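Q: My labmate handed me this sequence with no annotations at all. I'd like to see what the chain might look like in three dimensions before we decide whether it's worth expressing. Could you predict it?
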Amino acid sequence: KLTSIRAVELQTYFDNLLKTKSVSTVLTIRRIFIIFLNAARRLELLDTNVAQLTRPPRRIRQPDAMISIAKMQELLLAAETITKKPTNNIGTKFLRYQYEVLLKLAVASGARQGELIALSVNDWNPQSCNLSITKAVSVNYHGKTVISTPKSQCSVRNITIDENRNLIFSLDNI
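A: Here is what I predict for the chain of 174 residues:
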């Protein structure tokens, strides 16, 4: 029976699986076929591993979701409005300012959420308007939140914030 399997039939099988299964599931199934057909080759039951002749499914990269300028302005205005609401509670005032700064930083820098949350005062150089991204917040295997180095070296970078946006960090706003 193994000798009657053809690559075109196997390819059709994988293509049909893609209609109901994810790409990673189909890739795993294909890998399993390759492994067991390699075992059959070692036992000299097959001359060729037909699973290796099939085309692996490709992940279709989704375009990055972009927020429109109008929506960005709406978010910034909402953050500013919330920050300016009167309150006598210094903790509430500080939290509102913190959220506003994070939102404005995200817009100005393009930094990821985990990178922004991991920032400390030492990562900001007000003289050069330079933000140093060297760490990120993530969740470890035990479900604990940890600050660690980013997943790739490309994520470690310096971002220059133009001087107009430097006003974001003015302590007078608190």
